[in-house]
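Subject: Interface between my chains keeps coming out wrong

I've been trying for a while to get a sensible model of this assembly. When I model each chain on its own everything looks fine, but I need the whole thing in one frame so I can look at the contacts. Pasting all components below, labels as-is. Any help appreciated, I'm running out of ideas.
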Amino acid sequence: METDQIEEMDVEVLSSMWPDDVGTQADNQFNVEKPAGDSDTLKEVDIAEKRTMADLKRLPELLNTTDQGSSQLTNLVRQWEYMQDHAVRLLREELKILTRQREEAEAKELKIIEEHNFETEEPENVPVLDETSHLFRRFRQKKRDELVDSKRVVIDEEFDTVAYWKQKALSLEKMLEASTERERRLIEKLNESLKTMESHSAPDILGKTDVEIFHGGGVKESEDFKREVLEKGKASKREITFETELFGSKTFLIYVEPVYNKAREKIGINYMGMEVTDQVRKREKMAKLREDNAVRKAMESELTKTIHITEETMRAKQMLATMSHEIRSPLSGVVGMAEILSTTKLDKEQRQLLNVMISSGDLVLQLINDILDLSKVESGVMKLEATKFRPREVVKHVLQTAAASLKKDLTLEGNIADEVPILVVGDVLRIRQILTNLISNAIKFTHRGKVGIKLKVISQPSFASDKEQNETSVWICCDVYDTGIGIPENALPCLFKKYMQASADHARKYGGTGLGLAICKQLVELMGGQLTVTSQVNLGSTFTFVLPYKVATPDDHSDDQDEFSDMVDHHQPEPDDTTEGYFQFKPLLGSIYSNGGPVMGNNFLPHKAMLTSPIKLINGSVADPSNSSGQSQTVQVENGGYMDESESAHQYGNGNGHRCPSKESESCSSSQASSEMESELTVSSPREEEKTETEVKETSQPKILLVEDNKINIMVAKSMMKQLGYTMDIANNGVEAINAVKDTSYDLVLMDVCMPVMDGLKATRLIRSYEESGNWDAAIEAGVDIKTSESEQGCERSTDRLPIVAMTANTLAESSEECYANGMDSFISKPVTLQKLKECLQQYLQ
Amino acid sequence: MDTLVAQLQRQFRDYTISLYHQGFLDDQFTELKKLQDECSPDFVAEVVSLFFEDCEKLIGNMARALDQTGNVDFSLVGSSVHQLKGSSSSVGAKRVKGLCVTFKECCDSQSFEGCVRCLQQVDIEYKSLKAKLQDLFNLEQQIVQAGGRIPQVDI
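Reply #2:
Try treating it as a single job with all components included. I did that and got this:
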């Protein structure tokens, strides 16, 4: 470009600056300015101008050195700028034109769209009178947005091309077709409806008055309305429903106004009617919907409120249970410590204070147990067991227990009808709890006379539903009666309520927590029965509960039979105490025990402190007895269960604890292990025995016999005893135990129940028979090899009752009932802990 | 920075607690530990090893009894299980004892497959407990060797 510029540029010819008159003579010979002959040469010379490339680097140098150059440069620049501006101007104009074209095209497009748009619009016949008109509008909008496809014409081709217009034409044609089709259909429909209208004889309508067309009650109403308006002279509108021939029942909104002439006289009315049937219907529907909505919301809020309340209640109950639970642990700690204290040396005053502490603590623990029980039953967590048991035994035992700590001069009776089955299935623990509670109440409120339990079978009572009846269930009615102070009639209804006592005086005088009866009632009802009471003031009261039980038949898995059949000897005739139905107990007066079994006098203390079994009973869960929570609970309740002699607090608290659940049956056939154990025992613990021998030379040391076959249990028990400061002799089975007892006078025997050769129950029975009869005949008969040694003749063998404590593993055959029935005084449940041993020792070695 | 003794003690504590929480041991084991003092410093170890020997023997008996195909003496198995249950309950071997309960039920119902299965489980369980207690005792040893005192762990 620059080269072109240079070409086009007018080259200014510089005139000679040399003055003309200078150097004419002197320089003529040197004057070459005006060569005479050369002036033409220049004309002739043709400088062929050809394109030359300008050296850009050089060019500025050249241009800058001369004024001409710089002015030429600026010219150049100016030219270039002109060119650019020109170009810009042209482009701008181009742009303007294009923009204008585009706008025109858009306007055209809009116009076309608008022309097509009317098809998509729906008729605006939304009733204005309706309150819900806004809803309709919204609905329509929504419908349009979401449901109805846009009827816009979409062309793929580029705007303003042939293809574009072609496509547009095609689609528009289609749309036209569709619309004509719709039109045709509408016309068809119109013709149809015309026909129907005609068929209904249009003349029927045309030319008739409203009265003639319409039927129904609305006619009179409209007449009245018209008359009213005429009279009042006020225009008003009203909805009236008419019946029509053609269309059925329709509702019209009629507006009537009076017409006045110029003289202000009424000459008539103007009457306008609008059909609002649909609207009315919709309105009613809406109202109904709103009503339903409101009702539903109310129900929901009620429900949430109820849920809240229930939740709160549950939480409160849960909290109560937890709190009680939490309270129990430290409390049993306190009681436990108090008991340990009581084993130390105390003076009289201290002991008295301590006794008060212990009894108070026990009372509180019982209360907590009650609360827990109650909350458990109420919250439905309590699970009932179904175990086989002998009702006669249970009754006997409850009475025995009560008699053992009876301080008043009362007679305790038990009477079981013959038709009551020997063996039934039920929750023996709970039943015992109920009985004990009722008996203790009876004893508490009776100062003279008798207290008793009566069992009999009844036919299905009225309150039981028919579906529960089946052949193998019996209804047993149990009366707990007394000749006590009675209950006034007005107090009867509140009796079973929680925390209620018959009166405030009663509460003060007799103490108690008021929870016992409530628990009993809950339990009875939980088991499907009923608890009622009848009473007469100063004559006595009778508490009656009726429960269904399933009759059980002794089979392979039942307790006694198996055990005995596995024994080596079958010669010993078993005492038949299963059918005895009548017992009577008196306090502290020796045994009037009418059973044909081993002597069980009442004038001893063993029943008072029941060493308890795992608390899973109290928790009502039938879980594995070995779970650790059960274990820890054991310790606590034992403390709670222990009672001092001078305390005659509620015994039913003990009833809670002193049952071990009967589980599967045991068969104690001989095991090889036992013989091996013996030898190993002597090998493995020589060190212990050495030490203990050196320790035990004092004569004041009590003699304890441990009868156990499992060497590990022996090791643990021995070690525990050592820590408590005692030593023990060991026997590995019942026979050895008998021999040991025969030869040595022991102060206490810890008897494992399940052992080979001869089990603990049998051994105890034989020992008791010796105590009773003074000889070992029964044992010899049983096959025990009684070695008569010199020591027997030597020492004064007392026939004082030897305390025998069972160590049970909580199985069916080892239930505490069995233990007592066979002559045991008490029991410890395995595994043996320091605490259990300590308590046992405290009790029997005082 | 913990000393070696403190580290070991912490390890011991954590391991013991975990054994209780996982159900390997229960409170009866705690009782056993109470019986260990200067007079009988290895009491727990002795009892426990005696227990494991007993396990082995009883399991052997039961396996032999169950091996008499067609002529299994379930009462024999049952009595061995009873023994094992008593032992495990005395030492606080919670899981073993739990298995024994199930085992007893299988014996009572004379279910051969059940018994075999239970036997296997008991075998596994006592061995794993043995290993764990071994670890525990090793930790004790280490603590003692490092000059520390075995900490009392309250569960």
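Reply #3:
Confirming on my end. Helices of chain B lie at 4-21, 27-34, 43-67, 74-91, 94-108, 112-145.
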